[in-house]
């Protein structure tokens, strides 16, 4: 069955994570994605290890786990874009593509004639997505942007971690490159919006456009309710550890053998929790009867709940509370996650054939489409493994022409 985006060709000039995450999602949905890489070097993340994928004898291959996480369903083509002939090849591929994704510094591709203004002359229908740290405009536009830096500048680290006055307090980044991931998701949404606009009056009836996507913009947008807490009150939110600024109790609690999460979202759930814990009077105490009251008296309530939750194991609490529809759960390690029966039932681990290792594990795509499901067509490609085939199929280059390009080290 053809994927929802099987009619689209994406030229991916991006590296690291935000751009490749966007193009991998488009590829999972069926698009043909041609990943352009530097000859002999490739995407930076190919070298971001260990860990590296192990072969069938347990020896590490050349494929870093980081790279493998964002590049499946793509075709790797190596082209030296600093050379005039390499630039010509990319322009020719852009002329036959629907989308181009790049994350060079602002103006970085103009010197090669591969910027939006240049490629629009070659293909007016091209949707051209530029991902940068700070966008194409503004005083910070020339700066390089990295996820860790943006988590700090964009306010996320001011909200993550224990309060300053607590033991171990201070700013903390999120444990994955979340701003990059979110930017990739915004990028894929923006690409599809631009495609829908281009094609809305008929098949490819309109023109493409330029998408200017900045990591800082994305991080500010994703402050979400915390941004609104500030904008409506004038008070900057502070770090609360695992607690919630607007809901109580909504955090981790100690148990007899570890920790669990309570995610109580309304007064009825709180009453059921108190009954389950053998303390129904807590739910009628005026200090705790409503969420607003619990937020106001957070420092009085949480110690009382801590004293209750340590009396049973995590498993005992979860069994007891789930039977009473009180939202709760364990704090899993990554190993626990992939052992979880729900995660397994949903197919969130996928194993694909790999030329060096026999198989490579992948984290599945979470999108479930009833008529055009995502597909896992091929593992993240080896560097340059599709160069000859793509240039022959898409551009019609002969074997002699390919041999000449290789001799000149252009591909």
Give a description of the structure.
Keywords: Transferase. One of its GO terms (molecular function) is CoA-transferase activity. Pfam families: CoA_transf_3. The protein is of the alpha/beta class and 411 residues long. It has 2 domains: 9-222 and 344-407, Rossmann fold (3-Layer(aba) Sandwich); 250-333, formyl-coa transferase, domain 3 (2-Layer Sandwich). Helices cover 36% and strands 16% of the residues. It has helices at 18-28, 65-68, 84-95, 116-122, 147-153, 156-159, 178-199, 215-221, 224-233, 267-276, 291-296, 298-309, 314-322, 334-339, 341-345, 387-395, 399-407; strands at residues 9-12, 32-37, 52-54, 60-64, 74-78, 99-102, 127-132, 210-214, 250-255, 258-263, 328-330, 349-354, 358-363. A 6-stranded parallel β-sheet has the order 5-2-1-6-7-8, sandwiched between helices. The chain has a 3-stranded antiparallel β-sheet with strand order 9-10-11, with helices on one face. Strands 3-4 form a two-stranded antiparallel ribbon. A hairpin with a 3-residue loop joins β12 (349-354) and β13 (358-363). α1 (18-28) crosses α7 (178-199). The mean pLDDT is 97.
Brief overview:
The protein has 411 residues and is of the alpha/beta class. The chain has helices spanning 18-28, 65-68, 84-95, 116-122, 147-153, 156-159, 178-199, 215-221, 224-233, 267-276, 291-296, 298-309, 314-322, 334-339, 341-345, 387-395, 399-407, and strands spanning 9-12, 32-37, 52-54, 60-64, 74-78, 99-102, 127-132, 210-214, 250-255, 258-263, 328-330, 349-354, 358-363. 36% of the residues are buried.
């Amino acid at each position: 069955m053809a994927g929802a985006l099987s009619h689209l060709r994406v030229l991916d000039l991006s590296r690291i994570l935000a751009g490749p995450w966007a193009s991998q999602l488009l590829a999972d949905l069926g698009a043909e994605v041609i990943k352009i890489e530097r000859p002999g070097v490739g995407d930076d993340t190919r070298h971001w290890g260990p860990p590296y994928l192990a072969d069938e004898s347990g020896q590490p291959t050349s494929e870093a786990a980081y790279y493998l996480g964002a590049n499946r369903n793509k075709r790797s083509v190596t082209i030296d874009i600093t050379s005039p002939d390499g630039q010509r090849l990319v322009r020719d591929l852009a002329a036959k593509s629907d989308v181009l994704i790049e994350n060079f510094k602002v103006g970085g591709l103009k010197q090669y004639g591969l910027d939006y203004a240049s490629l629009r002359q070659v293909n007016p229908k091209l949707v051209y997505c530029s991902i940068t740290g700070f966008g194409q405009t503004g005083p910070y536009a020339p700066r390089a942007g990295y996820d860790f830096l943006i988590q700090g500048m964009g306010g996320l680290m001011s909200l993550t971690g224990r309060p300053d006055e607590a033991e171990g307090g201070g700013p903390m980044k999120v444990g994955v490159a979340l701003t990059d991931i979110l930017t990739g998701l915004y990028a894929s949404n923006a690409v599809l919006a631009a495609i829908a606009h281009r094609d809305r009056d008929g098949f490819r009836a309109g023109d493409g456009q330029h998408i200017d996507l900045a990591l800082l913009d994305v991080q500010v947008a994703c402050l979400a309710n915390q941004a609104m807490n500030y904008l409506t009150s004038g008070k900057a939110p502070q770090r609360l550890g695992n607690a919630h600024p607007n809901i109580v109790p909504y955090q981790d609690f100690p148990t007899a053998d570890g920790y669990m999460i309570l995610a109580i979202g309304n007064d009825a759930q709180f009453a059921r929790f108190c009954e389950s814990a053998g303390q129904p009077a807590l739910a009628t105490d005026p200090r705790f009867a409503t969420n607003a009251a619990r937020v106001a008296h957070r420092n009085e309530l949480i110690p009382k709940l801590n004293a209750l939750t340590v009396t049973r194991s995590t498993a005992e609490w979860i069994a007891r509370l789930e039977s009473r529809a009180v939202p709760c759960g364990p704090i899993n390690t990554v190993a626990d996650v992939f052992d979880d029966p729900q995660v397994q039932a949903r197919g969130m681990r996928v194993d694909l054939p790999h030329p060096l290792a026999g198989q490579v594990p992948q984290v599945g795509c979470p999108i479930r489409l009833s008529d055009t499901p995502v597909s896992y067509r091929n593992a993240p490609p080896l560097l340059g493994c599709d160069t000859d085939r793509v240039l022959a199929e898409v551009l019609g280059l002969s074997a002699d022409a390919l041999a000449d390009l290789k001799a000149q080290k252009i591909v």
